[in-house]
Amino acid sequence: MTSLLSRRTFLRASAALGLLGLAGCTKDGMVRFHGTNVTGATYGRDFRLTDPDGRKRTLAAFKGQAILLFFGYTQCPDVCPTALARAVDIKRLLGEDGGQLQVLFVTVDPERDTPEVLKAYTAAFDPSFLALYSDLAGLAQMAQEFNLIYKKVPTGASYSMDHTSVSYVYDPRGKLRLKFLHSQSADACAADLRNILRSA
Asked: Does 172 map to a domain?
């Protein structure tokens, strides 16, 4: 009976402290992520890009927020809109924590993705999502920093863009922590981001 009461007391205390919500923790206290844990990576350390209003942006501009960063282009037929739609679901699933998430969409097609086009594209998913761009030389530098692969693929009179389709997650201190594969569900991504935010 005593042990049952002790267990009930522990469960009540744990629930009050929110400990039961930390389903991503292993027995040794380490957080288990659904995404690829890249904490301590020597790539993706910073960026210097321009937003549609002409302001220069670096990681420091988003300190205090978790960042979900994705490379793509506005004329992408499937991967990019799917990734941004998943980001909408992730933010919704985070509930109140969603206000601490900044989604960044970086174009790999700056020749066609003008500031006006980029602003309208991200706003169609969520007004808080922010598009960023650079010139071709800056994009090449960023590709080196992020191990990003991208290239033009001719399609008749036009072209499409092949590109890396992972999403990068930064914690509120501006440290790269995770990579999400395109195949990962919004639920799994939201669980990881919730742990990132609550451990910040």
From this structure: yes
- 22 has pLDDT over 60: no
Q: Which residue has the higher pLDDT, 198 or 8?
A: 198
Give residue-wise pLDDT tens across range 100-140: 999 999 999 999 999 999 999 999 999 999 999 999 999 99
Q: Is residue 14 part of a domain?
A: no
CATH number, domain containing residue 41: 3.40.30.10
Other CB atoms within a 10 A radius of the CB of residue 57 amount to: 15
Quote the pTM value. 0.84
Concatenate the DSSP letters of all residues of 30-74 into one string: PBP-SSEE-TT-SS-----EE-TTS-EE-GGGGTTSEEEEEEE-T
For residue 72, give both structure tokens: 């793509």
Which among 200, 199, 192 is positioned nearest to 94, based on CA atoms?
A: 192
Residue 163 annotated as lining a ligand binding site = yes
What is the amino acid identity at position 119? K
Number of domains in the chain: 1
**Domain annotation covers residue 9:** no
What's the domain range around 30? 24-198
